[in-house]
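step 4 of 6: structure.
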Amino acid sequence: MLAPADAQSLQRVTVTSFTLSSDAQTPRVGVAFHLIITLRLRERVSDVRNLQLPLLAQLELLGDARSTTAARNGTLYREVITVAGHRAGSVTIPSATFDAVDARDGKAKEYATNGLALRVVAPAVPASLWMFLAWVLVSLGVATLVLGAMLVALARRPKVVAPQPDPQPAPQRPKSLAQALALLEQDPGRSGALRAREVVRRMVEARDGETLADVVDRVRHRHPELLEVLCALESAAFTHDGDLRAAIARALDALRQAQR
Amino acid sequence: MNGKRPGDIVHALHQTIVGQTAVVEALLLGLLADGHVLLEGPPGLAKTLACRSLATALEGEFRRVQFTPDLLPSDIVGTRIFDQRESRFTTMLGPIFANVVLADEINRAPAKVQSALLEGMQERQVTIGLQSFPLPDPFIVMATMNPFDTDGTYQLPLAQMDRFLLRAAVEYPSKEEELTILERFAVENTQPVHAVAGMQDVLAWRAEARAVHLEENLKRYIVELVAVTREPHDLIDHGASPRATLAIANLARAKALLAGRDYAIPDDVRAVAPLALHHRIDFSYRLATQGARPEAVIQGLIAGVPTP
């Protein structure tokens, strides 16, 4: 029930129906659909005031069209709101409300529509994409056949000994570990630990924003032998001065161990 | 170093609370870093249970205040009443005089009530009439907020949010965790938490946390993390205050202590930074219109700052 002061500015009407509906129960992400508010009044009015739209926090509002049709037997007000969902999941749309003085008893009332619960679903794969995928599969099949035929033809040709490729350059890891070890041995202090840590981080291709946890996650399976090196150097780089000597010794041990 | 460790509290809390690892850790971090905690999440996610369990595990005095629109400051801090037998005024201390105070749904009370609590949180003392009363030590306020039912609520201004050391989001449990909840609570109401440490242990842990070493380059990293929130950004109106810098440093120390270290590493700083930054950043309205999440914005900012 509204306060009397507010009631003075309200329309005096008889609400016969007030509903909220949607033209799609399971709209797709990114596809526009409509919410329709329908208000039927027994009286003839030229416009409808004090109608509050529902809060559409989970949807993007794309447009809004209103129409008021006054006929002999009353008024039909329709408001069509065009919206789109940008995330798959459940969307709850609260009620729209309409404040008016009920012509039957003269009391100010707040009418409310039903609420809506919709489910926004992931976008469908367009037919053109299916056609494209089919074309890719067919092309791959044809390419495989051609390649197979070429391989058979090549296999029947007399064999020629291919020149051996140049030996691969030795992996950089031992070199980097040796460099880190040398740095720490030359300068067994905080700055040496930081420089050695930087060399090892570069070796495992650590990016700027990565921390020890990120690097450990990445190298845990590929280079388990480096985990102790990484942890020991982290400790040497950040521990307090009282423990620095012990931390450096541990880092040196870990580097020597990893080199073997 | 005493025999009881902060990890014992974590273990005790998980006897009752299923999952919510981040929340339990956030409560512990707040406790160790001597700050107040804001928990934000939908109802029914064990926010209150977590706070109550923490108080029980610490053998501390626990009080809960349900914030409502008709609450008065005197309902929080206490009041003076006239004793007819003695013919004089006596002071009735309010529920704020406890070691662990749970301010449930803090945004449902008007600003003057929030201020009364927040003043106590900041000053660690309360003035009733002409007399000031110190609050117990340790004293930790855990406030909860429900992000959904915002009708009839009073949003906490940024200046008041700043008083909370950290803000943790309480998320829905996983399906497996929910199944465990179903099994655990089907046979008993709640498994009672036993006291595993005392208030003296908390004070000792706090001293240990304050002594955790923070290397110079780590301090610079913290300053950079806060500074980047103040740089022009589409989705941010105002960045975090220097109080955020202090909060991150204290929380990183607490995090290192929880991990059993007496020195902090970049991982500690990066893990606690979102807890200290989220509620101190004034996000633009564009955040809502673009459907962006504050957590993602903060993670993006943090990822852009090179680690030492």
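step 5 of 6: annotate
 - The mean pLDDT of chain B is 87.
 - The longest strand of chain B covers residues 78-83.
step 6 of 6: archive
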